Amino acid sequence: MDIEQNNNKPAGRINRMALTFAGHAFVGLGIIGAILPLVPTTVFLLLAATCYARSSPRFYHWLMHNRYFGSYIKNYKENQGTPVSAKIFSISLLWITILFSIYTAKTPWYVDIILILIAVGVSIHLIMIKTLKKK
Fold it and tell me: What's this model's pTM, rounded to 2 decimal places?
């Protein structure tokens, strides 16, 4: 998915407003994802960038050059990868949260299995993402 700005702007002011609103919502979800485990950050920021690229050059530029989120998008888009420290932190927090939930929540056994399978899947995904080389 290429999120570069293009001349394929949606027709009409209503579509641009809807895409801009969706971009704002995705940025909000990305911020929540940066704080809460199991909520993705990068995917929401990529969706926001895609919406902004089609609707608002100003917001697209703001997001791509944001000091907190710009690097997430640029590194992912350019297939540079994720820092080892981010991988370790994410996987550790994921497993701590899943195991704490399984231990404290009184849920059926199959819910625990689903949570473990989700954690395994997310862990594999994070491990398989290219590791960012220090420059």
Answer: 0.61
